[in-house]
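Before relying on records like the one below, remember that each one covers exactly one chain. Contacts with other chains, cofactors or solvent are not represented anywhere in the record.
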Amino acid sequence: AFENKLCVIQPEFTSYKILIPKNRKVHISIEDGNINAHNIIGVYNIRLERGNIDISNLKGEVFIEINIGNVNCFLNEGSIKAKTNLGFVKSDLLLEEAVIGPNELVGTYKNPTNKINIKAIRANIFFTRLTN
């Protein structure tokens, strides 16, 4: 007699936690996956083919190129330049000198010292005030 057995196949995903010293130039390139970058101090160049990116507590510069996915930015302050071709850009930040469109956002939130520049093809981009 056969017993009812549940067989589950789960994909294996490699996960890394990388600690990077302050004020470094970092280049990250991933084909499929997610990137969570928190407490960024320095210059980050991020390229992602498919996946999601979470950025928070930026103190430096971040340049992002993404094809398919979502970008979530949690900011205290900074200069923003974001454009997506086939997605949308949403923000709840009170921006100065803002240019806001359905697929583009340019402006300054509080202090322009920190910079984030995002170029996307089929990705949605979200900007939210960082809460502690």
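The chain is about 0% helix and 65% strand.
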